[in-house]
Amino acid sequence: MTHPAPAVLVAGTGSDAGKTTLVAALCRLLVDRGIDVAPFKAQNMALNSAVASDGGEIGRAQALQAAAARIPATTAMNPILLKPSGDRTSHVVVDGRPLQETDAVAYGPLTTRLWPHVRRALADLRTRHELVVCEGAGGVAEPNLRDRDLVNMGLAADADLPVVVVGDIERGGVFASLYGSWALQPDEDRQRIRGFVINRFRGDASLLDPAIEDLTARTGVPVLGVVPWVDGLGLDAEDSLGLRDLDGGPPVGEEGLRIAVLRLQRISNFTDIDALGREPGVTVTFTESAAAVADADLVVIPGTRATVADLDRLRQLGLDRALRDRATAGGPILGICGGYQMLGRAITDTVEGGGGTVAGLGLLPVETTFHVDKVVRRVSGDAPALGTDASGYEIRHGRTTVDAEAKVLVRDDDGRPGGVVAGPVMGTSWHGLADHDDTRRALLRWVAEQRGRRFVPGSVPAAAHREADLDRIAAVVADHVDVDRMLSLAGWRAVPSAGR
Question: How deeply is 404 buried, as exposed, middle or buried, from its count of CB atoms within 10 A (0-12, 13-18, 19+)?
Answer without folding.
Answer: exposed
